[in-house]
Automatic annotation (TrEMBL):
Substrate binds at S135, I136, D137, R172, M179, G180, R181, E235, R263, H269, V270, Q271, R272. Allosterically activated by ADP, AMP, or fructose 2,6-bisphosphate, and allosterically inhibited by ATP or citrate. It comes from Anolis carolinensis. It comes from the Eukaryota. It is found in: Cytoplasm. Residues 374-752 are annotated as: C-terminal regulatory PFK domain 2. Homo- and heterotetramers. PANTHER family: ATP-DEPENDENT 6-PHOSPHOFRUCTOKINASE, PLATELET TYPE, PHOSPHOFRUCTOKINASE. This is ATP-dependent 6-phosphofructokinase. The lineage of its organism: Eukaryota, Metazoa, Chordata, Craniata, Vertebrata. Its cofactor is Mg(2+). Pathway: Carbohydrate degradation; glycolysis; D-glyceraldehyde 3-phosphate and glycerone phosphate from D-glucose: step 3/4. Pfam families: PFK (PF00365). The active site is at D137. Its main location: cytoplasm.
Length: 752
């Protein structure tokens, strides 16, 4: 929430509006007085990395009454406030909408009581409202992610990772209760991200007889040498008769039926606290700026809107449509129409549920189809956190589809040497939380080893290929498809899933591993900022990875609240460096006496990190001193973030289902073999704005700058002005990409 508060304040001041804090939520609005305060630029300094909200929040009974709202209206008019930005859940937003519809009536009443004069009534006749959804449950329809959800997932996953090590040692079963009274999002996604054995959520209650089903699944897993079981329960979990299922009940069941050593851990308010994740900071900053733009454009005719996220796109939706749909989910659950409830939750929720169902239940040999297809999986390029989650998902979905799955170690190099072996369902257990690449990965391209790779594909009868990796994986697929003319072995379906910390693969807005790296950078910057504010008047120059791609430097700067970020994509010269130094010199005269500058490793051949450090040191003499920090390979390692685990799992599952479809289409019965040599049989699966789409790698060649290994157009460059505005630079902000008001997409009801 603080990142959103900061963005609203700074964007408001940037467009020369007066900005006020209303402390303690609606209570502060009703009480007025010192609760409504005009704020300055510096009021929101250093709050980006703080959890909770600095302006306080409270449930307010008075605001639910007309008298309360009358007082609130009076207090707003006294300050001349007619634009409200509300950050909260559906209750707060519904309250804001009621307030808006009553506004003119409230002002008339105040005028007739003599509280305000006629002039004020006319001048402040309309109230505009924009909402942002802050809720860790992600229980608001119309947005893929609410502010706070990703951070809550970070807390849950940290706990699960810690519990897994102790459970492994003692062969224990753990029942974890996570928040979500009416929404199972946190439970579902954390179950997906840690490979839990069973999950209970309100939208999808287990069928009658679930007790037997759960116990048989737990004992099967133990029989497969799995030393621990994790069961995740949402606090609002229910059975198909709407009766609650509690974590204690689940524990007692396991103890009575199976006699396993079982413990319950209730996470509680830990999930609300802690430092916000990089994703949440960027999301909230984008939303905050979008909210100010929406208020500036609002007219008395436009409905109150919420700023929300669809895929990777900021959109505006009518507030009451979203609230209505959110309430419809609850209604569907009360009426036991659970399939409707799941659909109303939206696309992202459905995908998570379907993927979890596919990955958690191992079918018996008799239930599995057999396709006689062999699918190979390999990692190519540098390690990226989340690669292992992607391999696990691929192997398990492949087995469920009836294929034989083969793992190739050490990329194309290992392929040429024949390092290929069949991999089973159990082999990939516990892989989701592991950093790095368990299969091993190399940067070697296939061109040198074509002959040998073709031979290995022949020997192992490989019918399809899944490549998980970065720019080298993309180049590798281009080389393999070019070699089809010479080698029939490569005339098979091939697909690539982008995984690289640099996020420099054409055809995808995100790559597996970039979110984890971004969190590492943000985390380090937070620590460095604390060190700098202790010593005062100090500027840190931080070098990030990314090759020529400025994604990490730019987004890291946005998430950490940096003063500048130097990237290759936006050329900078000595005048710009000079302007940045002057900007920091001015900043040192204020109460914020520290600076943070990020530089991408290849942003300039001559303006190196050392050069910039020396320039700043010389120019800042007597005003500030300088330190430099090269983050290096710590950005590649570490446990994958919830986003990377989830993204890796979902995108990889989708890729294997696509391979299955292509295998069926390209199987030639007469010849008894797979033959695919069209361009659309070698694809890259990427996230583009709102959708995951398959794109032939040949078609992506035109979008690629091969010399610098980056896409020619990158979506995040549009966020550059945002970072500059929030760091107090005068710059033009391109609002062509700002969200237009859309309507909520309502799914068709499911036929029973």
């Amino acid at each position: 929430m603080n990142a959103a508060v900061r963005a609203v304040v700074r964007m408001g001041i940037y467009v020369e509006a007066k900005v006020y804090f209303i402390y303690e939520g609606y209570e502060g609005m009703v009480d007025g007085g010192e609760n409504i305060v005009e704020v300055t630029w510096e009021s929101v300094s250093s709050i980006l990395q703080v959890g909770g909200t600095v302006i306080g929040s409270a449930r307010c009974k008075a605001f639910r009454t007309r008298e309360g709202r009358l007082k609130a209206a009076c207090n707003l008019v006294k300050c001349g406030i007619t634009n409200l930005c509300v950050i909260g859940g559906d209750g707060s937003l519904t309250g804001a909408n009621i307030f808006r519809t009553e506004w003119s009536g409230l002002l008339e009443e105040l005028a007739s009581q003599g509280e305000i004069d006629e002039e004020a009534r006319k001048k402040y006749a309309y109230l505009n409202i924009v909402g942002m959804v802050g809720s860790i449950d992600n229980d608001f329809c119309g947005t893929d992610m609410t502010i706070g959800t990703d951070s809550a997932l970070h807390r849950i996953i940290e706990v699960v990772d810690a519990i897994m090590t102790t459970a492994q040692s003692h062969q224990r079963t753990f029942v974890l209760e996570v928040m979500g009274r009416h929404c199972g999002y946190l439970a579902l996604v954390s179950a997906l991200a840690c490979g839990a054995d069973y999950v209970f959520i309100p939208e999808y209650p287990p069928e009658e007889g679930w007790e037997d089903h759960m116990c048989s699944r737990l004992s099967e897993n133990r029989a497969r040498k799995k030393r621990l079981n994790i069961i995740i329960v949402a606090e609002g979990a229910i059975d198909s008769n709407n009766q609650p299922i509690t974590s204690e009940q689940v524990k007692d069941l396991v103890v009575q039926r199976l006699g396993y050593d079982t413990r319950v851990t209730i996470l509680g308010h830990v999930q609300r606290g802690g430092t916000p994740s990089a994703f949440d900071r960027i999301l909230a900053s984008r939303m905050g700026v979008e909210a100010v733009l929406a208020l500036l454009e609002a007219t008395p005719e436009t409905p109150a809107c919420v700023v929300s996220l669809s895929g990777n796109q900021a959109v505006r939706l009518p507030l009451m449509e979203c609230v209505q749909m959110t309430q419809d989910v609850q209604k569907a659950m009360d009426e036991k129409n659970f399939s409707d409830a799941v659909q109303l939750r939206g696309r992202s929720f459905q995908n998570n549920l379907n993927t979890y169902k596919l990955l958690s239940t191992k079918k018996t040999a008799s239930e599995l189809p057999t396709t006689n297809f062999n699918v190979a999986v390999l990692n190519v390029g540098a390690p990226a956190a989340g690669m292992n989650a992607a391999v696990r998902a691929a192997v398990r979905i492949g087995i469920t589809e009836g294929h034989k799955m083969f793992a190739v170690t050490d990329g194309f190099e290992g392929f040429s040497k024949g390092q290929i072996k069949e991999i089973s369902w159990g082999d990939v257990g516990g892989w989701t939380g592991q950093g790095g690449s368990i299969l091993g990965t190399k940067r070697t391209l296939p061109a040198k080893h074509m002959e040998k790779i073709a031979e290995q594909m022949r020997n192992h009868t490989i019918n399809a290929l899944l490549v998980i990796g970065g720019f080298e994986a993309y180049l590798g697929l281009l080389e393999l498809s070019a070699a089809r003319e010479k080698y029939d072995e490569f005339c098979i379906p091939m697909v690539m899933v982008p995984a690289t910390v640099s996020n420099n693969v054409p055809g995808s807005d995100f790559s597996i591993g970039a979110d984890t790296a971004l969190n590492t950078i943000t985390d380090t910057c937070d620590r460095i900022k604390l060190s700098a504010s202790g010593t005062k008047r100090r500027v840190f120059i931080i070098e990030t990875m990314g090759g020529y791609c400025g994604y990490l430097a730019n987004m890291g700067a946005l998430a950490a609240g940096a003063d500048a970020a130097y990237i290759f994509e936006e050329k900078f010269d000595i005048r710009e460096l000079q302007a940045n130094v002057e900007h920091l010199t001015e900043k040192m005269k204020t109460s914020i006496q520290r600076g943070l500058v990020l530089r991408n490793e290849n942003s300039s051949e001559n303006y190196t990190t050392d050069f910039i450090y020396q320039l700043y040191s010389e120019e800042g003499k007597g005003v500030f001193d300088c330190r430099k920090n090269v983050l290096g390979h710590m950005q590649q390692g570490g446990a994958p973030s919830p986003f990377d685990r989830n993204f890796g799992t979902k995108i990889s599952a989708k890729a294997v289902l696509w391979l299955s479809k292509k295998l069926k289409e390209s199987y030639r019965r007469g010849e008894g073999r797979v033959f695919a040599n069209t361009d659309d049989s070698v694809c890259l699966l990427g996230m583009r704005r709102r959708n995951l789409i398959f794109q032939p790698v040949i078609e992506l060649k035109g979008d690629t700058d091969f010399e610098h290994r980056i896409p020619k157009e990158q979506w995040w460059l549009k966020l550059r002005p945002l970072m500059k505005i929030l760091a107090k630079y005068k710059t033009s902000y391109d609002i062509s990409d700002a969200g237009q008001l859309e309507h909520v997409h309502r799914p068709k009801p499911v036929e029973a």
